[in-house]
Amino acid sequence: MPGEEAWLVGEHRLNGERQYYLSNLPAETAIRELAGAIKARWICEQAHQQLKGELGLDHFEGRSWTGPHRHALMTMIAYAFPQT
After folding, report:
1. How many separate domains does the chain show?
2. CA angle 29, 35, 40 (to 5 degrees)
């Protein structure tokens, strides 16, 4: 983000913990939209950790181009299956 305007966003939680985020969204962005983007990132990170830890997304050791894509697809199907 060199040369671009960036914003440091701080979050003070009820338990006293503080979190800081760096954003390059425009200044006109609503606070709710900014908070939604921050929380959406956290949800994606949690899902990725669960895919790696519980379902073996990071256990593939193949060498073909289609192999990792098939493995990722099957892992994501397995992730979605118990949630339906």
Report:
1. 1
2. 115
Split the chain (84 residues) into runs of 10 and give each run's mean pLDDT: 77 92 88 89 86 85 86 88 66
pLDDT of residue 15: 94
In sequence order, the 6+-apart residues with CB closer than 8 A to the CB of 5 are: 24, 27
Report if residue 3 sits inside a domain.
Answer: yes
Distance CA 37, CA 33 (A): 6
Distance between CA atoms of residues 61 and 59, nearest Å: 6
21 domain residue, yes or no: yes
Q: Bridge-partner residues for 20, per DSSP?
A: 10
Q: Which residues pair with 10 in a beta bridge?
A: 20
Domain that includes residue 9, residue range: 1-39
Q: What integer pLDDT is reported at residue 83 of this predicted model? A: 63
